[in-house]
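Hi team,

Below is the intake form for Transposase DDE domain protein from Clostridium tepidiprofundi DSM 19306. Please confirm the fields before the structure is written into the shared record.

FORM ID: S-0412
PROTEIN: Transposase DDE domain protein
ORGANISM: Clostridium tepidiprofundi DSM 19306
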Amino acid sequence: MIKDRTDAELILFDRGYPGAKFFSFLKGNNVDFLMRAKVNFSKDIKKAKKPDQIIDIKNGKEFLTVRVVRFLLPSGIEEVLIISLLDEKYTVEDLKELYFKKWGVEVKYDELKNRLEIENFTERTKIAIEQEFYASMYLSNMIELAKQESNKIVKEKIKIKI
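The structure came back. Fields below:
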């Protein structure tokens, strides 16, 4: 994956990935990243109290420079993003918007994994597993199309009543 990337890519990660060694690996391979972190992820992150701050994170004997962005969700919960992009032309709002664009992907992944149980195969042969996989993907797409169509009908009925 690292070898096939272009310079214009930014990889978005969720909360399970942050770590100084991983940051070092990504930066060492010139991979830009944006990832969510727990508020108390590390001492260095805890010290970054400003809403938008560039800090150095210790990784063994070296230090890695990253940007830490803090903001409150509508629920009042604090969110922390760690970003390799240090340029201030990327505003906090830009970074928040970018991170939350992955939410649709997360919802789809949850549907495939937990509702359609795409990782739970009943067959054992390669061809049968592939058939199960593609049948699940087909079913997922049909469900999405039906959902979109029903949403249109509901919106039209609401417009008629108003």
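SUMMARY LINE: The chain has five helices and five strands.

Thanks, M.
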